[in-house]
Amino acid sequence: MFTGIVEELGEVVEVQEFADAARFVIRGPLVTADAGHGDSIAVNGVCLTVVDVADGTFSADVMAETLARSSLGGLGLGSPVNLERAAAVNSRLGGHIVQGHVDGTGTVIARTPSQHWEVVRFALPAELAKYLVEKGSITVDGTSLTVSGLGRDADGDWFEVSLIPTTLAATTLGAAVVGTRVNLEVDVLAKYVERLLAAREQPGE
To answer: Which positions does the entry assign to Lumazine-binding repeats (predicted)?
Structure first.
């Protein structure tokens, strides 16, 4: 489990491609300081298992389905990535409960800068729109964010977040231009509520 508070902006330093998978070597001195084989590290919101640690880098294998269903398939040498270690039981829950299981991908469709923050609008898959509420939580590329606006237009469903300077500087979202593909994970609590309500509506329940 993660909290969506990005600890470090890492960098992809090697990519090994195979027929049905890929191995990424990622530089992240902070997250690798106490990491070992089998530990979990979220990379742009995707929970990956550490297979090796060496000189401030870690290696992780990614299967073809994950590459296709997330933005990880578009990573290359030098790509910046958001990194977060799995939450410790005694740590603060600074963001919200994040599983590291991507529900879908969205796209940056607009950026509106202001004096002290920037509003970023994302397109999202129609099937995920029902899980978003204004002032609720969503994870974008592993970053826990608050939904500041949402709606639908002729091009489909969208939501907005307001990014403060710290988030712009400390995550990949600061450099995400219009057209950038991002990983989305909706609040798991919303999915549990949906499941429970559906079960109650079943005949004979």
So the answer is: 1-96, 97-197
- Only one residue has tokens 């590291």, namely 100
Paired tokens of 173: 């979202």
Q: pTM here? A: 0.92
For domain 8-85, give the CATH number.
2.40.30.20
Task: Report the distance separating Cα 169 and Cα 181, nearest Å.
Answer: 19
What DSSP line would sit under 139-193, residue for residue? EETTEEEEEEEEEEETTEEEEEEEE-HHHHHHSGGGG--TT-EEEEEE-HHHHHH
Q: For the chain, which residues make up each domain, given as ranges? A: 8-85, 104-195
Indicate the burial class of 72 (C-beta count within 10 angstroms; 0-12, 13-18, 19 or more): buried
Instruction: Kindly state the DSSP code that residue 19 receives in the 8-state scheme.
Output: S
> Each residue of 181-196: pLDDT tens digit?
999 999 988 888 888 8
The CATH topology of domain 104-195 is Elongation Factor Tu (Ef-tu); domain 3 (2.40.30)
3-class DSSP assignment, residue 35: coil
Instruction: Please state the φ and ψ torsions of residue 35, each to the nearest 5 degrees.
Output: -90, 150
Tens of pLDDT, residue by residue over 53-104, are 999 999 999 999 999 999 999 999 999 999 999 998 887 778 888 999 999 9
Q: Phi and psi of 25, rounded to 5°?
A: -110, 120
